[in-house]
Design goal:
mainly alpha, 3 domains, three-stranded antiparallel β-sheet, 6 strands, 10 helices, hpI Integrase, Chain A
């Protein structure tokens, strides 16, 4: 059983978990408030949870360090972006206790970033980083976060400008040298990033089944991707394979030029 007692005008709590005593200020001079808090703490302990005072000792800085450590040890390609997002979050949340990271504070952060001219998409990436920090903290053993607050996301304008109409694409392809036509056709039909097409190798292609695969970890978002070739793309890959055969070189890249 726990007890309450006074230090000056403020009530304090003493309670036990696994035989270890915990001392916590009720931050109130009212006995009824202290009793309510003690009852809540004893309820948490009876449910096998860590007492809430434990989470007051964990700060944003610790969650941010854990977040970046996870990126480094898993060699994630987006580490630089994660570091950039964490830097912006630290400007506001550095020194915050986990219990202080609330929806109103998150909304204040959003307003500050918007006033600084940050795009909604950029702010959303930062909010996603914050959400991942909190979720990672909640999954740790023992947990560092007892609850993840609601994090509002912003509407993004994802309309991209400057893309070709189909007629423009055909005119461009006709004007290209032969060694680029297959590359551009594959890019137009799949929407893959240039770096993904440049790095595509024959061991990622099943010519018999007409399938091209990128495995998890080979894409920017680390998710796998599969493309089923239509007749035009099958012809592109057949031409690329024939060029490889005629060159008599065991070139591993599908589009070596």
């Amino acid at each position: 059983m726990g007890t309450i007692y006074k230090r000056g005008q403020t009530y304090w709590l003493k309670y036990y978990r696994n035989g270890k005593p915990y001392y916590e200020s009720a931050k109130s001079s009212k006995e009824t408030e202290a009793k309510k808090l003690l009852k809540r703490r004893e309820g948490e302990i009876s449910e096998g949870k860590l007492p809430g005072v434990y989470f007051d000792r964990v700060k944003f800085d610790e969650l941010a360090d854990d977040f970046l450590t996870d990126y480094r040890i898993n060699q994630k390609k987006s580490l630089v972006r994660a570091e950039r997002s964490t830097g912006h979050l630290k400007e506001y949340f550095e020194g915050f206790k986990v219990s202080q990271i609330t929806t109103p504070h998150i909304q204040s952060y959003i307003e500050i970033r918007q006033d600084e001219g940050a795009a909604n998409a950029t702010i959303n990436r930062e909010l996603s980083a914050l959400k991942r920090m909190l979720n990672m903290g909640a999954r740790q053993t023992p947990p560092k976060v007892d609850r993840v607050p609601y994090i509002p996301m912003l509407k993004e304008n994802n309309i991209r400008k400057g893309f070709f109409e189909h007629g423009d694409y055909l005119a461009l392809k006709d004007a290209l040298p032969d060694y680029l036509k297959g590359f551009v056709t594959f890019a137009y039909k799949t929407g893959w990033r240039v770096s993904e097409i440049e790095g595509l190798t024959w061991n990622q292609v099943d010519r018999d089944q007409g399938i091209v695969k990128l495995e998890p970890g080979e894409t920017k978002n680390d998710e796998g991707r599969t493309v089923y070739l239509d007749e035009e793309l099958k012809e592109v890959f057949a031409n690329q394979w024939e060029s490889r055969r005629k060159s008599r070189k065991l070139i591993s890249y599908v589009f070596p030029n």
